[in-house]
Write a structure and sequence with these properties.
This protein is an alpha+beta fold. The protein has a single domain (2-121), classed as Aminopeptidase. The protein has five helices and eight strands; from the N terminus they run E-E-H-H-H-E-E-E-H-E-H-E-E. The chain has an eight-stranded mixed beta sheet, with helices on both faces. A hairpin with a 2-residue loop joins strand 3 (62-67) and strand 4 (70-79). Helix 1 (18-25) crosses helix 3 (44-56). The chain starts with a strand and ends with a strand. The mean pLDDT is 98. Bound molecules: coenzyme A. Coenzyme A (COA) binds next to strand 5, helix 4, strand 6 and helix 5.
Length: 171
């Protein structure tokens, strides 16, 4: 899979990606907005394990945001199951040097379109921690709507806070 987003790409992870993946992911300002499975510090071994996981998935739902040979971020879906099977959660991050250039918004738009075309989905959603207005803005710019405030649903780094649930529906 490869999607072009301006001069960057969303593409499958490759064996040679571990160095740039670890370098861009190794940020507390990234990890504090992600699930606990996204470590800090983020070591080369974490990057290798993630690349192994993502490339072994079937179907693949986790991809690199790349600028040529450099992985500058990641974007992925978690397909839901059972009665939630037409829903998917979407998540994304970018290395700090790449913030503020519209890259996450472009990646989210492209990935959302790809996901609706690729899978039998009607609902894609994201949960944003209440201290992360930049991500809420990215979702709004990509056409997602704020659906709910999930009060006290997130416990992260010793704080229990609300999540903002953003959703895109396509029947
Ligand atoms: C959230 C993140 C992906 C945004 O990436 P990005 O490429 O910088 O996003 P964009 O440039 O497309 O858009 C950012 C928007 O947020 C706005 N913004 C940035 N900081 C903000 C703040 N503190 N409060 C409000 N808006 C803010 C920007 O002004 C911009 O909006 P604009 O175009 O209307 O000016 C990036 O900061 C990141 O990786 N953060 C850590 C991981 C993360 O939060 N992942 C999402 C988990 S839900």
């Amino acid at each position: 899979m490869q999607l072009d987003i301006g001069s960057r790409q969303i593409r499958s992870y490759r064996d040679g990606d571990a160095e740039s993946l670890a370098r861009n992911a190794n940020s507390r300002n990234v990890s504090r907005n992600m699930r606990d499975s996204f470590p800090y510090p983020y070591r080369r071994s974490d990057a290798r394990a993630w690349i192994d996981f993502a490339t072994a998935q079937s179907p693949r739902t986790n991809f690199a945001i790349a600028d040529g040979s450099e992985v500058i971020g990641g974007i992925g879906l978690v397909l839901q199951s059972d009665v939630n099977r037409r829903s998917a959660e979407i998540g994304y991050w970018l290395g700090e040097p790449h913030w503020g250039q519209g890259i996450a918004t472009a990646a989210l738009q492209a990935m959302t379109d790809w996901a609706f075309a690729e899978f039998d989905l009607v609902r894609i959603y994201a949960e944003v921690f209440e201290w992360n207005p930049a991500s809420g803005r990215v979702l709004e710019k990509a056409g997602y709507e704020l659906e709910a405030r999930l009060r006290k649903s997130i416990t992260k780094e010793g704080q229990t806070v609300d999540a903002l649930l953003y959703v895109m529906i396509r029947d």
